[in-house]
Amino acid sequence: MNLEEQIISSLHQAFKDLFDQEISINELSLQPTRKEFEGTFTFVVFPYLKLTKLNPEASGQKLGEYLLQNCAVVPAFNVVKGFLNISVSQNSWIEIFGQLYNNPSFGQLSTKGKRVMVEYSSPNTNKPLHLGHLRNNFLGFAVSEIMKANGYEVIKANLVNDRGIHICKSMVAYRHFGNSETPESSGLKGDHLAGKYYVIFDKEYKKQINQLVEKGLSEDEAKKNAPLMLEAQEMLRLWEAGDKEVVSLWKLMNSWVYEGFDVTYKKMGVDFDKFYYESDTYLLGKNIVEEGLEKGVFYKKENGSVWVDLSDEGLDEKLVLRADGTSVYITQDMGTCDLKYNDFQINKSVYVVGNEQDYHFDVLFKIMRKLGRPYGDGLYHLSYGMVDLPTGKMKSREGTVVDADDLIQEMVETAESHTKELGKIDGFTADQAAELYEILGLGALKYFLLKVDPKKRMLFNPQESIEFQGNTGPFIQYSHARIASILRKADQIGVDYSSKGFEEINQLEDSERDLIVILNDFEKKIRQAGEEYSPSVLAQYLFDLAKEYNKFYAELPIFNEKNSSIQAFRIALSALTAKTIRKGMSLLGIKVPDRM
RNA sequence: GGUCCUGUAGCUCAACUGGAUAGAGCAACUGCCUUCUAAGCAGUAGGUUUCAGGUUCGAGUCCUGACAGGAUCACCA
């Protein structure tokens, strides 16, 4: 039983003994005491006045006195209005610290025996990754790691959109204007090469539209009849028919793109356990349409198209199969849903996809539940807001995007110039320095994108670039490096900071206690981040932890401390903080350096 | 137009799911390097939580209605 549970259990008993009231233990909860009051936990008595039949002050007073006598960890309390502020004894804090410190699996919750798939990244293969993809990838990776820490078995999946009209556009443009250039001959990364022709297609396509409009066609007609568009559509038909030449060009260009993506993924530090390709899955789902018709979940219209009626759930009617029997987007998503389950028997399935698809996933999940899928309740759309630029929305066709590779490069360079300015890394080899710049640059970028609640849209200003001070990745990394330096010195001069002898300590400084309090919250935050699919919870926590540590660091001496027990304790406290930062940051996909 | 999301300090974000005097960072200002890394610490200033009602002991949080921004509502993906 942890600390909060002990106190709550006592309160529960208090209601029985003092007021003869039986209440559910789940109804009782504690909150952190505000800084300006004495105490660590606060119990709000207002909701229980009907049970105590006393005024708020008297109720708090009675409960407080009960705790004092019956709960070993509580040495003091005070009541302000209806708030019962509960203190925890210093011995308890030291004992708790010992438990955390000696727990080899601190930060890893016990196994749930359940399997979850997290699908993220899911790029189109006609263009390179941009800033929006970075948010997606960092979120997906972090959520996966957080789920692992919560005791789930996690499968990271990437559903690659490798077919369709947009790919054909790049292919058509390449045929016309490519002059057989390759990544090697052009010196371009493969994904950038494909993206280049996607942009060229759009440019040339617009020219053709203008020409047709000048000849007297309407805008709509021009869009439909421009030769390049017709050609792309024809190419899609040929691809679906398995045309040898088209398929081989498709394979060639996709292989370039994958080489490019590999480099970017590696740089970003994300990985996958399973790749799905839409070229394999785009025909799936028709059997589910049949099944839905048999079960009466779907219905057929006169023209043969198949629909689902979700108006009883607050949505509309939705098409699931065209009149000509061909699939729409949601048909294949139903199929892929089953495929994932059949492949891995997953209990939960998380889709990391932007919020412009909220409606689509709402529909998809409701359908799968109506069909009675065993995994239906485990479906979750991790919907995140767009990343905006000061100039507005990014459009890849128009080339107004912040390219992922470029941005990462810039961040690393900024980290480099920053570090050189501070001049603290004498003795680093060139390789070590380069590694540090990468850790810091990526740390800043990842933290920046992860610290915000996923569902909120966010603004990214490349001009101002990302800060390295305050609520940032490098601030937390810096706190870790400081501790690493302390631990090096401790080892050097041979201090034993294993947990022996801490019970001799009878005076805890405020900043020591506050640090233990926040360290004690780590697993609670991991749980919350997992339940809410929100890395920002963890990011915020790590910032608070680092801040608390820096306060401790500034206020209290370590190697100048005469009392050897206290000195060892402070080093141990530092070590546990470093371990927590390292573990927590790793759940966000962020590395921490030992020197910076 | 229907549906959904968002609106908190000049800017970027928090607020433990209804609790105390709404907190951090950036930017501004003031201190602190003869002590373990100043990418740090301490402090000052900055608020009608978009607006108007309502629910109750108590509302940034819940309900209603405005206003603003965004997304979505294809036999596209």
Number of domains: 4
Q: Write the CATH architecture name of the largest domain.
A: 3-Layer(aba) Sandwich
Order of strands side by side in the largest beta sheet?
Answer: 7-6-5-11-12
Structural class: alpha/beta
Strand count, sense and barrel status of the largest sheet are: 5 strands, parallel
What characteristic shape results from the CA principal axes?
globular
What is the class of the largest domain in the CATH system? Alpha Beta
Residue share in helix? 40-55%
User: What is the mean predicted local confidence, pLDDT?
Assistant: 93
Tell me what you see in this structure.
A motif ('HIGH' region) lies at residues 123-133. The structure is a single chain. The protein is α/β, with parallel strands linked by helices. The chain has 22 helices and 14 strands. It has helices at residues 3-19, 49-52, 56-70, 90-101, 131-149, 165-177, 183-186, 190-214, 219-225, 227-240, 244-268, 278-281, 286-295, 329-344, 358-370, 404-422, 430-450, 473-492, 510-519, 522-531, 535-555, 564-587, and strands at residues 31-32, 41-44, 77-80, 83-86, 115-119, 153-160, 274-277, 298-300, 306-309, 317-321, 348-354, 379-384, 387-388, 458-459. Helix 18 packs antiparallel against helix 22. The structure holds one RNA strand of 77 nucleotides.
